[in-house]
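--- STAGE predict ---
source: upstream dedup step, 1 unique chain passed
mode: sequence only
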Amino acid sequence: MELRAEQEAQIGRWRGYVQRRQAISPADVDELEDHLREQVADLRATGLDDDEAFLVAIKRMGNLDAVSHEFAREHSERLWKQLVLVPEDAEAAGAPPWRELGVVLALAVGAGVAVRAGIAWLGDEAALARNLGLLVTPFLAAYFAWKRRLTARVVAGLLVPFAVLAVVLNAYPFVPGGSTELLAALHAPVVLWLLAGIAYMGGRWRSDGRRMDFVRFTGELVIYYTLLALGGAVLVGLTFGALQVVGADLEPVLEDWILPFAVPGALVVAAWLVEAKQNVVENIAPVLTRVFTPLTIVMLLALLAVLAAAGGLVDVDRGLLILMDAILVLVLALLLYALSARDPLEPPGLFDGLQLVLVVAALAVDAVMLSAMLTRIAEFGFSPNKIAALGLNLLLLVHLVRAGWLSAGCLRGRRPFAELERWQTRYLPVYGVWAAMVVVVFPLVFAFG
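--- STAGE serialize ---
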């Protein structure tokens, strides 16, 4: 079993190395990986162990730089095609040039129709909040399923948890305005996003490399979605300003039609843009992480000072604790995104030291928050909100402690950065399991209150 895990790690490192060659597209990387896996399987069948089979397979595939050069020579137009909206693999497969665009637009409109129908049929805002992820995520997962050509078995495996989650969110007799209802609405999107991630990974959720691809995709999706939202807000604002001059009031149209279609539809379109221009976006990741890492360190140190000045831990405002949880999750996302943008073969440098400082600062904040939460529980007793927040902070504590330990080992040259990457990606499903527990188990334990 250990050999299998190590072999997956070797293939993951190789995949990351291949992906840094801009002349090789993501579809080509998948094809090369499949070929490598076939070679390794054939060599293992002859009696070679995992390490020997992997090394011989790599040797047979030839020098990767030579492969990149050959791709660049034969497909030099690819670097130009990265700047247009029609992906090359659709043309190579003989599909109509705008077929994928048509699929994306249809799914984006479908997501808008689902949200608009949910607003009309579900009635109250609480029911809509619980089901909003269920109304949008299937369309995003459907795009991944179409793009990755998922097998019927994988699709069926994804439909089951989707269906279970839909039944739980709508069949449970939640107390109106209760804590468990709010917690279910907040944690259900986490479970749904990880299910969409399985579709993105083509069903290969056990692959470290594919999980890191999904981390990178998530970060890039946030960037594109934010840009689309900002651009859309400017466009809508200018349109409304012009129409107000002539006395037209389009606010009802904005609330009833534009936002229900634009917000979910933009998510599908942003996912398509990330896929279409993947190599171009990847160049943004190192810049963003190097800009925001030192800024985030300063922010965490300032927050530690605020908490120290707040006095007794019982007196710390609950809203501040919730905000601190959100900040810690953001810090974790920044750490993952920075790691996804890092060259694992690059020697340790100043930025890696800053990453370790960021982890230590986040650990200090998390320790203070855990102390505050335990003090509040001892003073006021248990509640669904307190247990959910305590569980999340304990998960973050374990994640950050191990990440800090591995980062220190990498900086000292005693551990490869691939080991840190494996820990980060393999720990992510734990958050999904916890979120599922909050959605499914907490309402039963706390009598749906």
